[in-house]
UniProtKB/TrEMBL annotation:
Protein name: Membrane lipoprotein TmpC
Membrane topology: Lipid-anchor
Primary location group: membrane
Pfam families associated with the record: Bmp
Similarity comment: Belongs to the BMP lipoprotein family.
Keyword Lipoprotein annotated: yes
Keywords noted in UniProt: Cell membrane, Lipoprotein, Membrane, Signal
One GO CC term on file: plasma membrane
Protein location: Cell membrane
Transmembrane parts of this sequence: none
Domain ABC transporter substrate-binding protein PnrA-like positions: 35-331
Keyword Transport included in the entry's annotation: no
């Protein structure tokens, strides 16, 4: 029997042709709750990162789609199954979906999954933001500002506040960092916390802000998603300042927001998709924070430069460098009988 040996050049040509006609990688993004049309929230940033990746890689390399249960718990499992059934990679940005992940993974073993935050499932990549680092800088800045009684809306007490949407891991890390940062600057600072158990209701956020203000807080860190805008909009009239989160909200609300903790979730989504396309996506857990340029505090904006004295901005830049380099580590501690975990 004669053997036919194809020339190497012909084999290479066939492989190149097959590669050219390879199906695009299908990527799904799982969101939960916030208004994806608003440019001031976590979900919008994630969606923008996916859109940028789609533009960068084009329809021949990737196909993207997003899903949002919009705070309907009954939709979480069906949407996750729908996404897994038609995707090569599912990026899960909300902890609400994670409890359904083992079931969906068993049903769709060929699909890869990646979660923001801990999933405790072997073989599934976890991305954990070090929100406590951004919270630390916000708390330090608030502690410095609250003693400047010559500034507008600052009273003669030493109380600052934080509004929290719910006891989810990212929110709790923000809280831990905020308290640690304030106490790093001055252990005598009292940090008042108010949970709204909601990330969407602006009226609840505004009411929580006034409760903190009436208790003596003159600076309030808003860690409750899109609902935080309710507290921010009320700030000037209510007689307090706020610190924003996710985007540079001081640019939109210059008389209400001192500065913002910027969480570059869109950049992370883009990098995840880029690594997946290049077959470089890790299969383990990794965390992102100041060092990786994924979290920061917006001391660079014109509005922050106007609202925050230059000596405080310089001190925050120094603290940022120390946190980024590991000279300051945010861990469990205890002040005034209160544990920061």
């Amino acid at each position: 029997m004669k053997k036919f040996i194809l020339p190497a050049a012909l084999i290479l040509m066939v492989l190149m042709e097959c590669s050219a006609f390879a199906a695009p990688k299908r990527i799904a993004l799982m969101l939960e709750g916030a208004d994806t049309a608003s440019a001031s929230g976590f979900n919008w940033l994630c969606l923008e990162g996916m859109r940028n990746a789609q533009v960068r890689f084009g329809n021949k390399k990737i196909s993207t789609r997003y899903y949002n249960a919009l705070d309907d718990k009954n939709k979480l499992l069906p949407l996750l199954k729908e996404a897994a059934a038609s995707s090569d990679l599912v990026i899960i940005t909300s902890v609400a979906y994670i409890k359904y992940l083992p079931e969906v993974r068993r049903e769709y073993p060929s699909c890869s999954f990646l979660t923001f935050d801990t999933n405790n499932i072997d073989g599934i990549t976890e991305i954990a933001f070090r929100e406590e680092e951004g919270g630390f800088l916000a708390g330090a800045l608030a502690a410095m500002i609250t003693t400047r009684v010559d500034l507008e809306r600052i009273n003669d007490g030493k109380k600052i506040g934080i509004i929290l949407g719910d006891k989810t891991p990212p929110v709790e890390r923000f809280k831990r960092g905020y308290i640690a940062g304030a106490w790093y600057v001055d252990p005598g600072i009292e940090v008042l916390c108010e949970y709204t158990n909601d990330f969407f209701d602006r009226a609840k956020a505004a009411a929580a802000a006034m409760k903190l203000k009436n208790a003596g807080a003159d600076i309030i860190f808003c860690v409750n998603g899109a609902a935080g805008i309710g507290a921010i909009e009320r700030a000037k009239e209510g007689g307090y300042w706020t610190i924003g989160v996710d985007t540079e909200l001081e640019s939109e609300y210059p008389e209400m927001v001192l500065t913002s903790v910027v969480k570059r979730s869109g950049h992370v989504i883009y990098k995840v998709i880029e690594n997946f396309v290049q077959n470089k996506l890790p299969r383990d857990r990794f965390s992102l924070g100041l060092k990786e340029d994924c979290i920061d505090i917006s001391t660079w904006t014109r509005e922050t430069k106007r609202n925050v004295p230059i000596d405080i901005r310089k001190r925050i830049d120094e603290l940022e460098e120390k946190v980024s380099s590991g000279l300051i580590k945010i861990k469990e501690t205890n002040y005034q009988g209160m544990s920061v975990k």
